Write a sequence for this structure.
């Protein structure tokens, strides 16, 4: 617990703290002797699966979608450029054999998912940059693993075009398996009610693990498969999602702690002396030349501003992944593989110390810091026997749901806000109740409108009460139906926002009260009838004037009581 607090407060990836614990316990510390490289690699791979799954579950699709092309190029072409530059420096500047140089170049060209996820989520970067870095860290493990295994194999390395074809094939298989299992798993989780809420988090992590196993068995990239499957599950809005997210984060922390401590046990500090200078030289070339060159070349087709390129270059954080990959040549008995491991270990430690804490400072200097409103926290609990759902909604600081009346949510027919918890006190809201930051809402929705209700809530949280009227957020240009069952209406020009009716060539009423849905009684936001007599005609036209428009003339008339009321 102390290590977690130190790493989160200092801005350092937790890698350093846990590696330090492992080193302190190891041979040069307390004296625990551990040299099982094979076991370390197996546990490292298992921990990596959990970390990638946790990262995919926490990645928002709307942030990562625009970043996919750039991330894909960085994860393939960018990796190739970085490997070439770093391997050349290791050979000519550090005096390392060509085979070992290629292995070192491949190992350190992978950004670490755990380091990226832990650091970037505490740094207020624009969503497009966060999306590129998170997607890159999730994607580039797959080609790097293939390269390290190929360079560590006995005998000469395959022709480069055969190696590229193998990488492309494994990535394609892994992507196909991950997408298939992710979509099938999400469909099953949303349509099969489990007997206990505690089973949902376990089921989600099991599906992610199955994706890795399926990808590996199909001779594809299991790491890419697990990340894509988790990405789909994380954006499918599954039942009991906050509990699932918390469970995944807890497993991710356990995986990081176990993996880093084990890697710290594996290293022998007194053997690192001769490899410190080569590690610093290779790391300097990697950080100041190889990474920037790969970023600038990879992002050239996307017209990325130079400030963003500079930040992407500095944010290529290394962590446990390169150290885990450095065990591959040790298991394969590559000559001088222990030296490779030591160089990678020193490089990762030193440059993580430099890059991690300075990343927020660089973002501020480049004027790339950004504070965004938090997404609504929505938890769904299925009610199988009642054919409905309970949605627990939290209104975070910065949400545009603040100041919106309950009636202005315009939830679809079949859903309603039934309870509000504010400052520890709960009450049943009225249509005119104004929502505030920190409120927790209990929304009841029937099965057919569950998705529409959640979509509408998120739209209001992102775009305010006019979301949908103006095409903002995730709303559409047509306001959702709400109010009495069967009521329907379309909004044009934001008419419903002011309680006005718009009429035109058809003479039909095309209005929607602020509370949502076409009001059959011409009611305003307070629920009072616009017609003094209270009468309505079958077409839903106001009884106050009989018609709201004149055929073919586009004349506007306002129903009595509709103007100026809310």
């Amino acid at each position: 617990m102390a290590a977690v607090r130190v790493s989160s407060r200092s801005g350092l990836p937790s890698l350093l703290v846990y590696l330090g614990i492992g080193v302190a316990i190891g041979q040069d510390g307390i004296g625990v002797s551990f040299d099982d490289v094979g076991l370390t690699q197996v546990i490292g791979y298992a921990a990596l699966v959990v970390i990638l799954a946790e990262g995919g579950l926490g990645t928002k699709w709307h942030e990562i979608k625009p970043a996919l092309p750039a991330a894909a190029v960085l994860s393939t072409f960018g990796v190739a450029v970085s490997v070439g530059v770093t391997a050349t420096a290791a050979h000519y500047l550090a005096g390392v054999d060509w085979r070992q140089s290629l292995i070192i170049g491949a190992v350190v060209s992978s950004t670490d998912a755990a380091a990226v996820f832990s650091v970037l989520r505490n740094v207020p970067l624009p969503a497009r940059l966060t999306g590129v870095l998170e997607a890159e860290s999730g994607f580039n493990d797959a080609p790097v693993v293939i390269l390290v295994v190929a360079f560590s194999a006995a005998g000469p390395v395959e022709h480069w075009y055969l190696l590229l074809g193998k990488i492309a094939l494994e990535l394609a298989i892994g992507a196909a398996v991950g997408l298939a299992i992710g979509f099938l798993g999400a469909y099953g989780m949303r349509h099969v009610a489990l007997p206990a809420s505690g089973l949902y988090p376990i089921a989600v992590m099991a599906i992610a693990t199955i994706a890795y196993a399926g990808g590996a068995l199909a001779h594809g990239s299991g790491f890419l498969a697990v990340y894509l499957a988790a990405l789909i599950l994380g954006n499918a809005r599954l039942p009991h999602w906050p509990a699932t997210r918390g469970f995944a984060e807890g497993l991710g922390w356990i995986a990081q702690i176990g993996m880093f401590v084990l890697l710290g046990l594996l290293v022998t500090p007194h053997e690192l002396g001769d490899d410190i200078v080569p590690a610093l030289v290779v790391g300097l070339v990697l950080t100041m030349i190889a990474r920037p060159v790969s970023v600038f070349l990879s992002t050239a087709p996307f017209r990325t501003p130079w400030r963003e390129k500079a930040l992407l270059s500095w944010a290529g954080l290394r962590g446990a992944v390169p150290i885990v990959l450095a065990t591959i040549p040790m298991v394969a008995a590559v000559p001088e593989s222990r030296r490779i491991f030591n160089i990678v270990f020193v490089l990762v430690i030193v440059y993580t110390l430099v890059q991690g804490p300075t990343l927020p400072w660089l973002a501020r200097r480049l004027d790339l810091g950004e504070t965004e409103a938090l997404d609504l926290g929505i938890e769904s609990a299925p009610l199988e026997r009642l054919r409905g759902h309970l949605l627990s909604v939290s209104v975070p600081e910065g949400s545009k749901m603040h100041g919106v009346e309950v009636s202005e949510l315009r939830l679809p027919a079949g859903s309603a806000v039934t309870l509000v918890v504010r400052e520890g006190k709960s009450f049943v809201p009225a249509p005119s109740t104004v929502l505030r930051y920190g409120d927790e809402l209990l929304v009841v929705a029937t099965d057919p409108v569950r998705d529409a209700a959640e979509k509408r809530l998120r739209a209001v949280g992102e775009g305010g009460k006019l979301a949908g009227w103006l095409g903002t957020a995730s709303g559409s240009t047509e306001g959702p139906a709400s109010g009495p069952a069967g009521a329907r209406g379309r909004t044009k020009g934001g008419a419903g926002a002011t309680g006005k009716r718009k009429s035109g060539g058809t003479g039909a009423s095309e209005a929607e009260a602020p509370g949502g849905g076409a009001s059959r009684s011409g009611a305003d936001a307070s629920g009072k009838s616009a017609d003094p007599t209270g009468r309505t005609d079958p077409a839903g036209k106001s009884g106050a004037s009989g018609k709201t428009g004149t055929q073919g003339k586009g004349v506007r008339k306002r129903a009595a009581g509709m103007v100026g009321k809310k």
